[in-house]
Amino acid sequence: MNSMLRSARTLATTASRSSVLRRGYSSESVPDRKVAILGAAGGIGQPLSLLMKLNPLVSNLALYDIANTPGVAADVSHINTRSEVTGYFGDDQLGKALEGADVVIIPAGVPRKPGMTRDDLFNINAGIVKGLCLAIAKYCPHALVNMISNPVNSTVPIAAEVFKKAGTYDEKRLFGVTTLDVVRAKTFYAGKAKVPVAGVNVPVVGGHAGVTILPLFSQATPNANVSEEEIVALTKRTQDGGTEVVEAKAGKGSATLSMAYAGALFADACLKGLNGVPDVVECTFVQSNVTDLPFFASKVRLGKNGVDEVLGLGPLSDFEKEGLEKLKPELLSSIEKGVNFANK
Which domain holds residue 143? Predict the structure, then answer.
C-alpha cells in the first residue's frame, strides 16, 4: 500500500510540475498568488484546503473559519508542496486572512439539518455570506471571489449588493461556482455514451439549484448517439445530483468531496486566467446579459481581470429551449430574494 501511495504522489507531483511548465512558466517563475478559503474547517473546506495545497500556482494559502482552523492548517501545512499555509479563526483574524488575497473561495455556511426549513437555511447562510463579503470589501476589494455557499442563486446577488454599497463591486470579479454541475454532467454523459470521461465537455448554464440547472447535452463533445429519452434522464440526474448524494449518505452528509473537487477546479481556472494563460473557459454564475436575467450561469472566458468575456448560449435543442424558459421564473425569484436580503 505504501508503495502505491508513493507512486501516486510521484505521479501527481510530476503532473503538477509538467502542467506548470506547459503554461509557459519555469518551476521558479510561477507568479506568487495568495488564496484565502473562508470556511476552511468545514465539510467542503477541509478537502478544498487539501486540494488547493496541491495546486502549484498557489504560493500562500490562508485558511479561515470561526474555529478549529489552526488544526486544519497544521495538518495541511505538512504536505510537501509550494504554498505556505496559515490558519486563522474568529472575527478578529478575518482581516489578516484576507489581506493581499488574489482569490477568495467561500464554502462557509451550514448544511440543512432535520427540521430546518429552506428559509431557515437561507437566513443563516445569507447572513454568513453578507458578513464575509463586508470583510472582503474592506481587506481585499480586488480579489476574485468564488462563491460556493448555497444557495448560490441568492448568495452571489447578496455579495454583489454588499460590494455595491461598499463601492468595490466589479462584476468581472464575482463568480458563483457551478462547476459541480459541469462535473456531474460530464460524468453522467460519459457513462451513458460509453466514452472516456477525460475527453468529455458539457456546458451547463442557468443557475445552481434544481430546475435552474440546464446542461446543454446538445453541445456535448464528443458527439455520441444518445437518445432523447436518455437526454431527459441525464438532465434530471444532473439537476438532482445533490439529492442523490444526500440520500446515499442516509442524511449524514451532503456533496462535500465532489464540491471541493469542483471548487478547486474553478479556482485553478481563475489562477490560470490571472497568470495570463490564454483561452481559459469555464461555466460560472455571473452578472450577465446573455438572457434577460441579471445573473446567469454561462460559459465565461477568464483573464487577468477575472471575466474577459461572457460567451453566448450557442444553438439549443427544443428540449433545452423549453428548459431555459422553465428555469427563468425560479432563478429570478432566487436572485430577487438575495437582493432583498442584502438591502433589508
Answer: 27-176
**142 has catalytic annotation:** no
Inter-axis angle of helices 228-239 and 179-193, nearest 10: 150
pTM equals 0.91
- Ligand-binding annotation for 125, yes or no, is yes
Please check if 33 is assigned to a binding site: no
Please indicate if the annotation marks 42 as binding a ligand: yes
What the block records as the C-alpha cell of 128 is 454568513
> Is residue 133 domain-shared with residue 260, that is, in the same domain?
no
Nearest CA-CA partner of 47 in 242, 259, 208: 259
Q: Note whether 244 and 192 are same-domain residues.
A: yes
Cα→Cα distances 160→163, 165, 299, Å: 5, 9, 20
pLDDT tens figures, 22-39? 344 445 578 999 999 999
| C-alpha distances in Å from residue 195, one per residue of 188, 225, 237, 239, 265 | 11, 11, 18, 22, 22
State the CATH number of the domain containing residue 139: 3.40.50.720
8 Å CB contact between 213 and 180: no
Q: Using one digit for the tens of pLDDT, what is the confidence trace for 222-247?
A: 999 899 999 999 999 999 999 899 88
pLDDT score, position 12? 44
The helix/strand/coil state of 81 is: coil
Identify the pLDDT of residue 10. Answer: 44
Catalytic residue among 33, 34, 173, 208: 208
